[in-house]
Amino acid sequence: MGDLAKIFKAYDVRGVVPAELDEPAAEAVGAAFVEVTGARSVVVAHDMRDSSPPLAAAFIRGARSRHSDVVHAGLGSTDLLYYASGSLGLPGVMFTASHNPARYNGMKMCRAGAVPIGGDTGLIEIRDRAAELLGAPVSEQGGSLIEKDLLSGYARHLRTLVDLSGIRPLKVVVDAGNGMGGHTVPAVFDGLPIELVPLYFELDGSFPNHEANPLEPQNLLDLQRAVRDSGADLGLAFDGDADRCWVVDEHGASVSPSAITALVAVRELAKHPGATVIHNLITSLGVPEIVREHGGLPVRTRVGHSFIKAEMARTGAVFGGEHSAHYYFRDFWFADSGMLAAMHVLAALGEQGRPLSQVVAAYSRYHASGEVNSAVSDQDDALRRVREAFAGRGTFDELDGLTVSGSGWWFNLRPSNTEPLLRLNAEAADETKMTAIRDEVLTIVGKVSE
Question: Catalytic site residue 41?
Answer without folding.
Answer: no
